[in-house]
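Sample intake sheet
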Amino acid sequence: MAFMDLVFFDISIWVYLLLFVVAFFAGAIDAIAGGGGLITVPVLLAAGLSPAEALATNKLQGCAGTVSASYHFIKKGQVKLSDMWFAIAMTAIGAISGTLLVSYLDSSLLLKTVPIILIAVAIFFFFLPKVQPYIASRFSLTNLQFSLIIGTGIGFYDGLIGPGTGAFFSTAYLCFMGLTVVSATAHTKVLNATSNLASLAMFAFSGHIVWALGITMGFGQWFGAQIGSRLVITKGATLIRPMVIIMCLAISVKLLLDN
């Protein structure tokens, strides 16, 4: 595809408007429970993008949503970046490593295990009030340990594969750091934004990003994530728990059907 085609994809203005609306709803859902890519990637493919273009463009528009949600959580005092700098650094390193190695590693085997893990996450969130205090009291990690193990590991996974990253980060914060559901969601968005931005930096050199589409959807993601992040703070666990369960199961079904 020519350079100008990657900048301005040849589709009607109504399709751009539709993609903006889709990104808005995906951004709101992603800010609450993750899994926004489950909505946006199929729509990008339906718009005529190749799989490589859809994944790269999705990463661009997805960054806007996670950065938007992170900004809101930081502004509202749910997250202190000064306490997260090492986790952010390790997540970025993990995501860059995963993105660089995606062409060289066979991720198909790992991808087949993801639905099983996501179903386990859904079960965990279903029984969250009973099991979270028990696990957190026995398997707690320090900030340093969390950054090295969880930040690097899940960041690498996000760069390599991606589906369920938000759910994995949230579960890790609940289990190993003993955070509340709202606080875990807020911290998750910061690390998810980090891994997205790190991967995007690598994708920018691939030549597959359709910039006009990605930016248009990015605006939709930004505003949708603002709505979603506000709902997280006002509704709390009563909204987050069922949404995480639904999105984990939806991603699992999608992956099982694809494979």
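Comment: Residues 96 and 215 are 22 Å apart (CA to CA). The first helix runs from residue 3 to 7.
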